[in-house]
Amino acid sequence: MSTCQSAEGRPGSPGSRGEPWHRRRVAAAQSGSGLGRPVRVVVAEDAYLIREFLAETLSAAPEVELAAVCTNGKELMTAVETWHPDVVLADIRMPPSGADEGIRVAARLRETDPDIGVVVLSQYAEPSYALALLDKGTGRRAYLLKERIRNREHLINAIETVASGGSVIDPLIVDVLIEARSRAAHSRLSELTPREREVLAEIASGKSNGAIAESLVLTKRAVEKHVNSIFSKLSLPETQDASRRVKATLIFLSEEESDAPLWDEA
Question: SS3 letters for 38-66?
Fold first, then answer.
């Protein structure tokens, strides 16, 4: 599918099967969106099977009016201008950027159309993406793992929640964020000042005190003071300086690695 397709006339869509719209209005009035009508949704997903699954599921949901189905972020923004949806349901990684396209769309809509809710879907738990999604506020935003969309009730609830101004974060994402915060609280590096962390990063790259001073535009004496403070805060005993530098480097690299993204979505 090269262009964004209107949901009307798609196999299984309300318009193609003659779905009684009064039933959809009754269901919507009893739903949690608060709109008193079906929630108008535009879907953007580049994976064919998932896109078709979402289209079929939402077309059959009386609480939802599926307006269009897209394959990338550019098509999605065009569909938003055309259909003025209440909610956008988008994959995080899709063309044209192939990276965090869903997050970028959410940020753009926060500026241009703040009343549009955004539900982003991800294959894996990515705390950094969740934090980026909620950077400007939690209202009308949801982050779901794709495994959750198999549960129709869970998916519809997320759509209705963001349509009414609320937010939904996948429980697994919450668990990962809590774990990351707990790890940071117990990190030996947490006691270091920003400048000391910079010096330690230079030590880890193998630089001498003189080279560090030149790189950070400090005096050599200032660097020595920072280095001694780092050794003290990391509880490294006064042995050979080279040995302490190696141990400090190992601590830095091990904790920096643990703070990196836990998953890389393919």
Answer: CEEEEEECCCHHHHHHHHHHHHCCCCEEE
CATH architecture assignment, domain 5-178: 3-Layer(aba) Sandwich (3.40)
Spatial contact of 229 and 196, defined as CB atoms under 8 Å apart: yes
Q: Taking the CB of residue 103, how many other CB atoms lie within 10 A of it? A: 25
Is residue 57 within 8 Å of residue 13, measured between CB atoms?
A: no
pLDDT in tens, 195-242: 999 999 999 888 999 999 999 999 999 999 999 999 998 888 776 666
Which pTM does this prediction carry?
0.64
| Residue 49, both tokens | 């099977």
Nearest CA to 163 out of 18, 49, 61, 10 is that of: 61
Could you state, in order of their start, the residue ranges of all structural domains in the chain?
A: 5-178, 187-258
Q: Inform me whether the pLDDT recorded for 145 exceeds 90.
A: yes
Distance CA 183, CA 77 (A): 39
CB-neighbour burial class of residue 186 (10 A; exposed 0-12, middle 13-18, buried 19+):
exposed
Q: Which amino acid is at 59?
A: S
pLDDT tens column, 180-201:
666 655 677 888 899 999 999 9
H/E stretch holding 125 reads: none
Q: How far apart are CA 103 and CA 80, in angstroms?
A: 15
Is cis: bond before 96, omega within 30 of 0? yes
Task: In whole angstroms, give the CA distance from residue 260 to residue 128.
Answer: 9
DSSP 166-180: -EEE-HHHHHHHHHH
Structurally, at CATH architecture level, domain 187-258 sits in: Orthogonal Bundle (1.10)
